Amino acid sequence: MLKKWISILVPFVLILGIASLSLGAEFHANPIPADLRSGPIPPAKIGDKAYCVIQNDDGSIAYYYGLFQTGDGVAAYMDPMTCGVPNPYPFRISDAHFYLYGFPGSVWPVQIRVNVRDMTGSDSCDGPGNLLCSETFTIPADSAYPHLMNLSLSPICCVNRPFFLEVIYTGGTSSPYPSLLFASATSPTDTCNNWFKSGGTYFEWYLAWLPPVPGDIVLRATGNTEDTTCQVSESLYWKPGYEDYAPSGVPDLDQHQDNWYKYETSAYTFCGPAAVANCFKWLDSKFNIPGGTPGDQSDRYPLVRQYIDGIGGLLSAYDDHDPFNMNHTGTPWQFGATTAPPATLPQPFVLGFQPPGPMPAWGELVERLAWFFDTDGVRTVYCNHSGTRVADLEQGIETWFQSEHFPGGSTLADTLCEKTWKTPTFTEVESLVEECEDVILLLGFWWYDNVTLRWFRCGGHYVTVAGINSEDSLIGISDPAFDNAEAGGRGIVRDGQYLTHSHGSHADTVHNDEGNVSHDVYSVVQHTQPWGLWRLSDYPVSLTPGYCVDFYAQNIPTELESYTGIYGFGPLYTFVEYAVQISPWDYRGDVNYTGEVELGDVVYLITYLYKSGPPPYSMTEADANCSGQVELGDVVSLISYLYKNGPVPRCCISS
């Protein structure tokens, strides 16, 4: 929990991470010309355990809005229980239907993004929440009203409760854009079925419009109830997506590109930088509030900056989430680079539109991370080791945080933290993922030699956790080396907006569009071994040990160097050796809930512990030394901070 008393709150607004809702606005809807209006039509409700249409509108057409801008749109509450079957879940959303009215002066074609969002809370009046699925479409003029748009969602998009279907204008031409249409009558005020979005803010329908308030959004979702294709994807908790730009959840960058291999072996070794880049891009999208679109050259959080304005991007001159900002083919990786990448500019970070640097043509996101992590020894002694050591990855993340400054003197290191878990339990990893921390796993490939009676490790590999489920012992990952779901294995494949995603066969750069992902699902087996407590039983390297040669002697923790050995024979096990967690700092110590840490907190805590005083309003807040319990050590920690220049009471774990 961030506190008012911390000087680093300059970036507080950047990391709030919640949807913005507004109490009121002054938008004005226009009646559609009389000859184009239509009366109510009974909605089509089909509920036969298969196809179902969900809609709130009564089928009438009465209003439009002529001032939609880029980023504006609408969201409609959808409840699969209206399908008429006792339990419609999991419900797979297959299509979105709506009208676009080309009023005089509107410009075609128009680019539309269809989003599926969770609810912020348990009620529709809490408003739209996390992004679940997203796809962008370009709509030509011949699709104008009275043609009913039927846009099919190519990624599998499944829900287990009511959701919001959202349509957002993302550009394509200059405004004014053709208008979505609204019915003559609207749902009661207490249903909160309709929301208007403008400037990154959601407005509840009755509070958005000047009289007369237009009717329900003419927006419908169709799909299938009890869809079996949803079973694997919906059994996991998946990290949510964010508009700018991680629409499919955790990105899934590929390590097999642009010379990212060790020169002497030709083995690709950049899984560590790629796995961390997945985390950084997801966190950068989460805290980029309000979100924009890739290519807008705007940035509201400096975890990922733009590194390409000296060479140009794919979508614009430069942008932090441009596909070329992950890797630009014009700057191939230089084996044994001898100079550090230039510092990002400007420092301190400037919120909003990013002025040109220009940045020299040296290394985009993954290559910069490789330098910070000393991958393949590039920063110290090239080819001294293969891949990335855990200790170097830890230090590199911290150095990266310290390199980005905010006005006022604080850095990202005051906002974000890194914590490494040696041989973590599956329960610990699940807890971290579900608290929305970013988690990277170091997998080790082990085999047991029955002749020497010894364990050997042929190599290791970094992946990023995208989803998890302890009930069914499943884990979903973004894997820099494999796209198992795309190849027909378990998992989810989702599509982005800027690079064509041909599932199963595509260039290694296609996942640089962060919406293109293959989230691969594997079974977890508890199996204690000296360097792991659980393993992925059906991971490709375990099923096909020949893959081990691709990872030989890579990513070796220092303490495991003596175990390295070429695979011989017998079962090959994929153990989880380390977890690296990246989280916002959780500041603590405000025991008496005054908004600052001061002597009163010490007194309050002593009174509670030793004089039967009232308990703290939050036991987490009182656990100042992060021990997991409230005791004398917390008093000592607070006194040390207040009077002995001790460390700020904060924990690298969610509250």
Describe this structure in words.
With about 650 residues, the chain is an alpha+beta fold. The chain has three domains: about 20-230, no CATH class; about 235-585; about 585-650, Type 1 dockerin domain (Orthogonal Bundle), CATH 1.10.1330.10. Helix content is about 15%, strand content about 25%. It has eleven helices and 29 strands. The protein has helices spanning about 205-210, 230-235, 270-285, 325, 365-370, 390-405, 425-435, 540-545, 600-610, 620, 630-645; strands at about 20, 30, 50-55, 65, 75-80, 90-100, 100, 110-120, 130-140, 150, 160, 165-170, 180, 195-200, 200-205, 220-225, 235-240, 300, 350-355, 415-420, 440-450, 455-470, 475-480, 490-495, 515-530, 530-535, 570-585, 585, 650. Strands 17, 20, 21, 22, 23, 24, 25, 26 and 27 form a nine-stranded antiparallel β-sheet that branches. Strands 1-15-14-5-12-8-9 form a seven-stranded mixed β-sheet. Strands 3, 6, 10, 11 and 16 form a five-stranded antiparallel β-sheet that branches. A hairpin with an 8-residue loop joins strand 8 and strand 9 (about 130-140). The model is unreliable at about 1-20 and about 45-50 (pLDDT under 50).
